[in-house]
Known about the structure:
Elements: H1 2-17, H2 28-43, E1 50-51, E2 54-55, H3 62-74, H4 78-103, H5 106-118, H6 120-126, H7 132-152, H8 155-172, H9 175-190, H10 203-223, H11 225-241, H12 251-254, H13 256-259, H14 267-276, H15 282-299, H16 313-326, H17 330-357, H18 359-363, H19 368-385, H20 392-412, H21 420-428, E3 434-437, H22 442-448, E4 454-455, H23 457-466, E5 470-474, E6 483-491, E7 494-501
Parallel strand pairs: 3-4, 3-5
Antiparallel strand pairs: 1-2, 5-7, 6-7
Helix pairs in contact: 1-4, 1-5, 1-19, 1-20, 2-3, 2-22, 3-4, 4-5, 4-7, 5-16, 5-20, 7-8, 7-9, 8-9, 8-10, 9-15, 10-11, 14-16, 15-16, 17-20, 19-20, 21-22
Amino acid sequence: MIKIWIVILSVLLTGLLYGSADRAIDKIQESRIAETSREMVVGNEWLVPHYNGELRLQKPPLTYWTTAASYKMFGVSEISTRLPSALFGLLTAWLLFVWAKREINISAAGSIALMLTTSFLGFRYFRSGEADATLIFFISLACFAGFSLFESGSKRLVWLLMLALGLGFLTKGPAAVAIPLLTIVIYAFSIKRLPILKTMANPVGLGIFALTAFGWYAWILLMMPDIAQHFFSKQVDETFISGTHQQPIYWYLAHAIEFFSPWSLLLIPAGIWCYKNRPLPKLIQFSIVWLGVVFVLLTFTVNKQTQYAVLFLPPIMIILGYYLEVAADKYYQYNRIIFWLLCFAVLAMIVVAIRKHGFNEVLAMPDALVWLLMLLLPLMLKKVMKVAVPKTPVLITALLATFAYLFAEQYLTKDVEKADIKILMQTATVKPALYQLKPGDGAVSFYAQRAIKPLDEKQLQQALITQAELWLVGKEQPKLSNVQFYAEKQVGRWTLWKLTPLP
């Protein structure tokens, strides 16, 4: 199995880490976590999170803690911000591998591990310093422990389940508890094993869950009850009631091909095959229930965002990995057609890059050898070590998906504006009275290496009453009366203004 994982890691480590150190912190969710974690380390205040110098209790703290720990070990940087997500992505792949190897076979397990991390959503969120990779690991761990309970009923599995539920809740809230518990209960009902649920009422297990899930919340409510209630109630309202990212009820279905590509092309044939070839293995039955629970919860939740769709990944990839292992006849022929279409698609992308940059420029790219090794090394390792897993078509597809995503990121879709704030703050950080416009951006403080307080227009006007001058970072010039603006430096849409009151 070690040889198999050497081959798998030769694909996954490239996909998860390549280019991470060169991408600036830009996305709002990632910048919030990066700056909050940086302020934890700098201020040595790990229990009460702060963001841009202000209290931040809207989100559970576990992702802040793991990112801050990464900063402690490796220093504050872009790659340190993203290392925890890469680690939890690898842990999830390993967990599903072990689970599928036990319930199906090692060949399907290898396919599942590769497919999970080389799907579009896997690339996007396992390479980003956000909470989603951590969340799906603990949800997957809870589902694994709950499924295993039906086999042994061990108290240790109950403890593992409750620990996973608690840590999942501490990562991103109620979804981490609702998804595994509903999946386990509905699966127990479907196989008529409801009595097994009694084992979950283990006092030690419940204590583990209460401590991990609510210990931090209890401490915060005890220390700052009025402030904490405001933040907690605001988060519940935004997620379940008012919503800040409302979308149509069919939104996830409409984006399924995009979210799970290239493997999403197998979704319909896999669904048809599973329907026609019942009864299915226990793990596949469980995964179908798991997928149904996620679909119902996310469909009827007010907020709908791309990052929430990561919750679909584990059950979908388990089902697709099983389908690729057992598909035969016309299904097997369809899979071959999809494989060759993907090969042609990647070839077409390379042609587009050559036309855009010129053949000689592409050949002269400093990392051209890296791109070649990216495609050939896993295949060479598989050949030299004489391992049958993962299957060659699945391995090649995973390699092509990895190559396509990273190559497009570097040469086709690279957005140079994402580094603008990083460049600007190299000048702005030396300014003493420096502020940013509300609601504020974590990247401003992250690259300034100090908390840059966000102010609205009214607060700026008041600040200029007592200060002879101040500096402001923002994308739009605020409307202030009797104030002189001087654009000291501009990088892209970001500007550093010097503000002085008119005499």
